[in-house]
């Protein structure tokens, strides 16, 4: 009997030793220590052992059960530890790996310019208006004193979507829309996209303008000059000078083009200002009384001033950008420089 018990212990040791998976150990546990296991059947066979040998053999059997139980639970712990280590190896985070590129974007230079200009004018009491990019001929041209077949339409020939529907060529269309719907006092600026059949280093087929309109009693050219001079000093720097040159727009009378001293050479003359010391930034004028009347505003009581600037041009001047097309290429190296 003693030999039988010893060989059972040896068998258990060998099998446990050879086991590689937890599932095998569980099976061995059942086969040695379970209800129908080898040790249990040894205990059941005690009744056949002669009376005088029972205490000694019983002690052996109990020792064998404890030994086998220890062998099994030690191996179980060992395999559980190994399984945990394997899991941790698989799930570990390699902190030496390159980080994911999560660089934050930046605002487009034109957006920066729009935000700055909107800030300046809202600080002066203007509100922000807007209108549609697909516009009626009436608002883009006719109400602005540009009847059909007027020669000034040539410069702003555009993309038509029908006889009277077009992609607007100027944010001045919002002037007409506003005056038709609102009585003075009016004090608005309107940023937005406009379209023209242009394409070169300083002209783009789509660009952005900001329109300004003030209509009230006693508005004069002096108000326009004072307002735009203050604006230029805020946008560039306080030493900036402005120059008003006579010009022509059908919807303003008189009309002017406004130049500022070059912010690169401060008026001395350089490549950016083509040696003149001055850079043109916008068109403006006193609202033509004909336009006020066509839009339902009594020109004997009210007068107005209006101006329109090109956002891309201002961005080019402010940031020294030589070609307008760079603004539309979305080259991330260029855009990153505005962070
Ligand atoms: C106008 O569009 C007038 N509506 C401005 C105005 C408003 C005058 C109110 C009087 C009263 P002009 O065509 O000059 O004017 O355009 C205004 C500005 O838009 C120009 O000074 C220039 O900076 C910009 N611009 C014109 N064409 C282009 C283009 N193709 N690409 C980029 N910028 C342009």
Write up what this structure looks like.
The chain has 339 residues and is of the alpha+beta class. It has helices at residues 2-18, 22-33, 38-44, 54-91, 109-123, 137-140, 172-181, 221-235, 289-294, 311-319, 332-336, and strands at 127-128, 134-136, 165-167, 186-195, 206-216, 242-249, 252-261, 278-287, 303-310. The strands form two sheets. A seven-stranded mixed β-sheet has the order 1-4-5-9-8-7-6, sandwiched between helices. Strands 2-3 form a two-stranded antiparallel ribbon. Helix 1 packs parallel to helix 4 (54-91). The longest helix is centred in the first third of the chain and has 38 residues, at 54-91. 31% of the residues are buried. It binds adenosine-5'-[phenylalaninyl-phosphate] (FA5). Residues 170, 172, 196, 198, 203-204, 207, 209, 211, 249, 252, 282-285, 306-310, 312-313, 324 line the site of adenosine-5'-[phenylalaninyl-phosphate].
Q: What features would you highlight for this structure?
A:
339 residues, alpha+beta, binds adenosine-5'-[phenylalaninyl-phosphate], 11 helices, seven-stranded mixed β-sheet, two-stranded antiparallel ribbon, single chain
Summary?
The chain contains 11 helices and 9 strands. The protein is α+β, with helices and mostly antiparallel strands.
């Amino acid at each position: 009997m003693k030999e039988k018990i010893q060989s059972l212990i040896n068998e258990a040791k060998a099998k446990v030793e050879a086991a590689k998976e937890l599932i095998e150990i569980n099976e061995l546990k059942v086969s040695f220590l379970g209800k129908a296991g080898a040790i249990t059947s040894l205990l059941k066979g005690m009744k056949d052992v002669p009376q005088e040998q029972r205490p000694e053999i019983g002690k052996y059997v109990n020792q064998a059960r404890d030994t086998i139980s220890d062998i099994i639970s030690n191996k179980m712990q060992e395999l559980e530890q190994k399984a945990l280590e394997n899991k941790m190896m698989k799930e570990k985070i390699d902190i030496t790996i390159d980080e994911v590129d999560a660089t934050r974007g930046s605002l487009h230079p034109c957006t920066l310019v729009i935000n700055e200009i909107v800030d300046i004018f809202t600080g002066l009491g203007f509100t922000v208006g807007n209108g549609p990019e697909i516009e009626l001929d009436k608002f883009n041209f006719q109400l602005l004193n540009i009847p059909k077949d007027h020669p000034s339409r040539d410069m702003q020939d555009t993309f038509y979507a029908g006889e009277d529907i077009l992609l607007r060529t100027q944010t001045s269309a919002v002037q007409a829309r506003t005056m038709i719907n609102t009585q003075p006092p009016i004090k608005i600026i309107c940023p937005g996209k406009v379209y023209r059949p242009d394409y070169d280093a300083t002209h783009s087929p789509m660009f952005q303008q900001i329109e300004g309109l003030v209509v009230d009693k006693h508005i004069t050219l002096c108000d326009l000059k004072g307002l735009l001079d203050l604006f230029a000093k805020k946008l560039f720097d306080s030493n900036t000078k402005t120059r008003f040159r006579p010009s022509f727009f059908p919807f303003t009378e008189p009309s002017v083009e406004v130049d500022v001293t070059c912010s690169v050479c401060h008026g001395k003359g350089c490549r950016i200002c083509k040696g003149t010391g001055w850079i043109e930034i916008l068109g403006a004028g006193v609202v033509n009384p004909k336009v006020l009347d066509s839009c339902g505003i009594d020109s004997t009581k009210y007068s107005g001033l209006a101006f329109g600037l090109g956002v891309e041009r201002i961005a080019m001047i402010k940031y020294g950008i030589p070609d307008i097309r760079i603004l539309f290429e979305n080259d991330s190296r260029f855009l990153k420089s505005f962070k």
